[in-house]
Known about the structure:
The complex is a heterodimer.
Chain A: H1 2-34, H2 36-48, E1 58-67, E2 73-82, H3 86-99, E3 115-120, E4 125-130, H4 133-136, H5 142-159, E5 165-170, E6 188-189
Parallel strand pairs in A: 4-5
Antiparallel strand pairs in A: 1-2, 3-4, 5-6
Helix pairs in contact in A: 3-5
Chain B: H1 2-49, H2 53-62, E1 74-79, H3 96-113, E2 117-120, H4 130-138, E3 143-151, E4 159-164, H5 180-188, H6 206-223, E5 232-234, E6 246-252, H7 260-263, H8 266-283
Helix pairs in contact in B: 3-8, 6-8
Amino acid sequence: MTRTFMVALVILAAAVVIGLISLRGLRRHMQRMAVPQFAEEQARREVLAPPISTASDVPTKAEIFWAAGPDTLAPVEMELPLSADPAVRSKQLIEALVSRPPTIGQRTLPPGVVLLGFYVLSDGTAIADFSDTLASNMPSGILSESLAVNSIARTLASNVPSLRRLKILIHGQEAETLAGHVDLTGFFDLNPAPPASAPAAVATPPEIPAPHPVPAAH
Amino acid sequence: MSWARERAAVAGENKSALLDIGRGRGSGILAAVRHYLWLMIFLAAAAGLADQPAFAGQASAQQPPPAAAPPSPMIVLDPAHGGIDTGARGENGIVEKDIVLAIARTLRAELERQGFRVVLTREADTDPSYDDRAAAANAYRYAILISLHIASTGKPGTVRAYYEQFSTPLPPPASPAASPAAAQARSATPPPASLLPWHEAQQPSVAASRHLAEILQLELARSFAGSPAQPTGAAVRELRSVAGPAVAVEISSVSVSNAEMLTGMAAPLALAIGRSVDAYRAGSVAVPKS
C-alpha cells in the first residue's frame, strides 16, 4: 500500500514537472503565434518595397499636410530627399506623412501604418496599398477618416503633379470603407486636370494645394 | 242638395284618396330629395378632397396657375451602424450605434410633433446594409435622408453636416476613334435612355444635397457653439446610392464623459433639422422622381 502510494506520488510529481515545462513552452508558442500578423506584413513590405531612398534623390522642399485643428489640414514645408520617379517619390512622401508629424496632435494617420505598395498607372491613377493598421487603428468617424484620406491625397497632389487620382487599398484588397464611413470603392481627385505637357515628375512642388479629394463612382 | 252631398261625398272620398296617394308620393319625394342632398354632399366632399383638378384646368385657361407648393418630404432618419458594427467607441463606454438610435428616436418624436412625416432605417440593434438604407429613402417619391453619426474626434458638442462629393471622371484616352469624323458620328447618335446606376444614384442630387447641407450647417452653427458655418463635401458611403437630397450629420464625440451629453443634443438638433427642411422646401422646387 505504502509502496503503491509512493509510486503514485512520484508519477504525480513527474506529471506536474512535465506540465510546468509544457506550460512554459506553450506560453512561448502562444507568444510566437501572436507575432505573425505583423511579421507577415513586415516580410511582405521587405519583399515588395524597394529601398525608399534612391541615387536620384534630390533635397526638395515638400508640403506635407497634417492636422491644423480638429477639422482642418494645413501644409507644413519640410526638406526631404525626394526621387524624380512618381511612385518612389509618393512612397517617400507618405512615409514622411506617417512617421514625421511635428506633434502627436497633428498626426492624421494611425502610428504603425505601413505603405505596402504604391503603383502609378499610365493614365495618372495612383494606387496606394496600406497595411490593415490604417483601417483597424483609425478612429471611426467621417471627420477623422476624411482628414486621413485628405492628408494623403493633398500631400500627393501638392508634390507629385503627374498624379491625377488616387485609389486606396487595404492589404491588397478593395475595402468598402476606411473605418465605417469614408467610401474607398472609388477614387480621390489629386490633379484631375490633365497636365499641360508636363514631365512625369517635377522636382518643385506646385504652389497651390489641390482641392479636396473626392471619391469617384465606378 | 243630395247632388251636393253626393259630390261632396265623392269629393271627400277623392280627397281622402288623393291624400292617401299624396301621402305615398310625399314620402317618395322626400326620400328622393334626401338621396339627392346626400349625393350633392358626397360630390362636394369628393371634389374638395381631389382638389378639383377639372376646375383648376378651367382656371388655367384664363390665367397662369399659381406655383405649386413643394410637397412635404418624408424625412428618412438613418441611425448609422448597428448589430455587430458598433461604430465609434469611447473610453467611457459610449457606443455610437446605441447613441445614434436613441437620438433618432427622439428626433422622430420631435419632428412628428412639428408636423413632419418621419421613418427610421432601423428601429432596433440591427445593421441594414448601405444599400438597404438607401433603398429605404428611394422607396418614397420625395424623401430627404439624414444619416446620423457620432465622431471619435472633434470638439465635444459640435455638429457637422456632410454632403456627398464625387470625383472628377477621367476623360477617355485619345485614340484613332477620337477623330473629328468619329466625334461627329457620335454626336449624331442619340444618347441612350438615361438610366441611373445604383452606385451613383446620388450624382444628380449632389447640388440639392449640398444646398440642404448649407442650410442645415448654418442652423447647427447657431444651435451648437463651435460648429463650423459651412458643410463639408466627403465620400460618405451611406449617401452614394440615395436618389434624392441626402446629408450626413456627425456629432462630436464619443469622448464625452456620459451619454446624456450626446442624447441631450437631440431636441435642439430636431429644431435645427425642422427649420432647415422648411427653409429648403421654401427655397427649392421639388422634382419628384420619374
